Amino acid sequence: MSLSHLDRRTLLAASGLAGFALLSDRANGAVKLWSSPALAQAGDGRVLILLQLSGGNDGLDTVVPFADDAYRRARPTLGLKKGETLPLDDYRGFHGSLKALRRHYDAGRVALVEGVGYPDPIRSHFKSYDVWHTADIRGRNAGDGWVGKLCDAAFKDVRNPNLVVHVGANVPYSLHSTTHPAASFVNPRAYRWAGGESETEAYEKAGGMEAESDPRAKPKKREGESSLDFLRRVLADGQSSSEQVRRAVAAYRTPIEYPPNEALAQSLADVAALVSGGIGARVISVEAGGYDTHTDERNRHDQLMRTLDAALGPFLDDLGRSEAGRKAVVLVFSEFGRRVAENGARGTDHGVAGPMFALGHDIKGGLYGKHPSLEKLDDGDLIHTTDFRSVYATAIERCFAVKHERVLGAKYPLVPYV
Predict the structure, then answer these.
(1) Residue 287 counted as domain residue
(2) How far apart are CA 261 and CA 266, in angstroms?
(3) Which of 11, 77, 92, 179 is the most buried (most CB within 10 A)?
(4) Which pLDDT score, from 0 to 100, does residue 243 have?
C-alpha cells in the first residue's frame, strides 16, 4: 500500500500528530505511525506494560515459602507442600500451575521482587489502589496518577493520542493525566471515536472518563487555543487514535496460540499487537480481577494461577517476536497481599506485602528484595521489605530516561531488574 492509496480522512487525521511520520508497511498492508526522535530518546523507545491483579493477590500462595515452618502452621488447610510447587530454591517455589512463568524464569525473563509494599499500609481496596496509582500515600489528593506525571516529565511536548493505552473497561487512576489522557477500549477491533452532543463528550466516553465526577479528567485547552480549535483537536486525536488501533490489531499475525475463551489472555494478545503495531504507545495498562479470596481460596486461587499462567506464557513468547516486544517491560502487581494465617472460611483476608514481577526479554531475571519474615509480623501481617516505588523508579529511569524523583517526589533505591 502506498501513500497515494490512503483515504483522505486517514491522512488528515494522521497528519495532525506533530512529531510523527506516516509510513506505509508493504509487508502487511497496514499503515504504521513510527515514533518521533523525542519518543525514542525517552528511554530508547521501551514500552512499559502494567498488569494489575485486582483484589489483593495472595503472594504466599503465588511464591510459596514451602520450607518455612511458620507458613505451614499458619495455613494448615491452604498451605502448599513442596511437591505442589515449582521450586526456585530450597525455600520457595512458584505455585504449581505457573509452569509457563517458570519456563520464562529459567530463561531469565522473570524478575521476582519479594516483600513489596509501603509504610503505614492501607487494607481498603480503593484507598490502597489510589496509593499504588499515584505512588503517594495521599492518593488522589496528590494530583495526577504516576503515569500521568511520568508522561508530563518525559513527553511534555509530544502529541500522540495513543501514548498511553488501557485495554479494559475502567481506566485506572494511575493513567489519569490533565495533559496526556489515555485511550481506552475493551475490544480494539470495535474501537470507534463515537459522536455525541459534543466532541468533548465523545472524548470522555472513549477515554472511560466522567467529567462530572472528576473535572480534571477533561481534555484541557492549550494556551492561546480557541474553543473551536480545541474541539477540532479533540475530535482529530480521537479519530486518529481509533483508526491506528484498529489497523494495528487487524494487521497483526502471530503463530502464538492464546487460550480462546480467556479474557485476560485475549487482552494480552491485543497488547502484543499494539506493541508490534507501531502506534506510538509507551505505556499500556491491563487489569485482571477476582483476586479477593476471602473464601474457598484453594480452588479459587488455583484457578486464578492457571488463568494467569495461560495468559502470561504465550504473551511473553509473542513479545519475543518483535524488536519492540523484546524491549518491553511488564510489571505485574496487586494493591496488597493477604494475611499470613488462613481464616475460618478457608480463605485469607486483606494483608499488606506481597511479590511483584517484572517480565521481559531484555530484563535481568532472578530474585530481588528480601522475603519478609513469617515470624516477625505486624498484627498478623507481613512487614514489607521493598517499597513498590523502588520498582516504579527503576522503570521510570530505565524505560524513559527520567529521574524518578521528578515523578515520585522523592528518591528510592533502584531494583536493578533492567
Answers:
(1) yes
(2) 8
(3) 92
(4) 81
